[in-house]
Write a structure and sequence with these properties.
The protein is α/β, with parallel strands linked by helices and 344 residues long. The protein contains 11 helices and 9 strands. 35% of the residues lie in helices and 15% in strands. Helix 3 packs antiparallel against helix 4, helix 5 packs across helix 6 and helix 6 crosses helix 11. The N terminus is likely disordered.
């Protein structure tokens, strides 16, 4: 048997580090070539991914794709001729991540939640196309000029506004935004100054400002504001009929030197080259294509990233993970006072 190549998909979080998920691909040298994939049952969008894998299997007569549950992996031959892999960690060192083909596929990342029927296709396309904070601000002004409140945030727990600050600082190229809030001054970050400008312009829905985050993210579906910040873990707070009316848009990347996403992500990558690399690459290319990732995004409510840009995405720890930290609460209170001149 020749050297095996392994396609992996893993959940990775900067802080804390979570386990990762492995998709095993084995080749036996025969025809058709067999790809055995371990697809963990705990992935909420597992059925949609499995359907795409089965479709790939159907259109590739020389490849046979078999999906097995995680428990069945014990029957797979040990990884004697592959790169060292540890079962419950992300498996890649920094050097490997830089040298191998690694792609952030999806995950619990934050993005804008928008209701297209509320703002219309022209403004929706403008939001999609906003590449910088300046572009984004200009679109928010156009939305307000159309008689629609641009943004909603339920800030009673303070971290929702801090999350906006983190995203804006990252979009402005500030790598410090990936650190804990305690590293920041009480007020005056570039992001917080933008937030204060937006508040003074009336971009935020005042009615929901002092409410919890759940009410804040429901505003777009209710038609009371154009957009809010939203993550995959919040899916349960929206009804299915509400989800069908919404679109998820990546936050503007701005002047940051590399693509970034806040939260945790599922990475898909090929570990080692082998005589069957072309077959493995076919599956990788199919699952990360623009058409498949767009379809998965629509069906799951998760944002799946295509490899079309050719760029790697840097994952950043979400400040929301520190919501119960006293330093975060103090930071959030100071930020709230800086932005709107008061404490909750």
């Amino acid at each position: 048997m020749g050297k095996r190549t392994w396609l992996l998909i893993g959940i990775f979080a900067i802080v804390p580090i979570s386990g990762c998920i492995i998709f095993f691909l084995l080749g036996d040298g025969g025809k058709p070539e067999t790809l055995i994939l371990e697809l963990p049952s705990e992935i909420p969008w597992r059925d949609a991914i499995a359907a795409e894998i089965r479709h790939f299997d159907a259109i590739q007569p020389r490849l046979e794709v078999r999906i097995i549950p995680r428990a069945a992996s014990a029957a797979i031959d040990p990884l004697s001729d592959t790169a060292l892999i540890v079962a419950d960690t992300p498996r890649l060192s920094v050097d490997q991540a830089e040298s191998e083909r690694v792609h952030l596929w999806t995950g619990d990342v934050w993005r804008l939640i928008v209701r297209p029927s509320l703002i219309g296709q022209e403004l929706l396309q403008a939001l999609r196309s906003a590449a910088t904070v300046e572009d984004f601000t200009a679109v928010l002004q156009r939305i307000q000029n159309a008689g629609i409140t641009p943004l909603s945030v339920g800030n009673s727990h303070y971290w929702p506004l801090a999350l906006w600050d983190q995203h804006l600082n990252l979009a402005l190229g500030d790598r410090g935004a990936s650190l804990a809030p305690v590293e920041f001054p009480a007020a005056g970050t570039p992001g917080s100054r933008i937030l204060r400008d937006w508040y003074e312009r009336g971009f935020f829905l005042e009615e929901y400002w002092n409410d919890g985050w759940v009410r804040g993210i429901r505003a777009p579906s209710e038609g009371s504001a154009a957009a809010a910040l939203f993550s995959g873990r919040m899916l349960g707070s929206l009804a299915k009929d509400q989800m069908a009316e919404l679109e998820f848009i990546p936050f503007p990347q701005g002047s940051s030197p590399e693509p970034w996403a806040v939260g945790r992500g599922i990475f898909i990558y090929i570990m080692n080259p082998s005589e069957k690399a072309a077959a493995y690459d076919q599956l990788f290319s199919y699952l990360t294509s623009e058409s498949v990732t767009a379809k998965l995004s629509r069906e799951t409510g998760q944002l799946f990233y295509s490899t079309a840009t050719g760029e790697k995405t840097r994952m950043v720890t979400s400040w929301e993970k520190l919501a119960n930290d006293p330093a975060m609460r103090s930071y959030g209170q100071d930020l709230n006072r800086f932005v709107n001149g008061s404490r909750l």
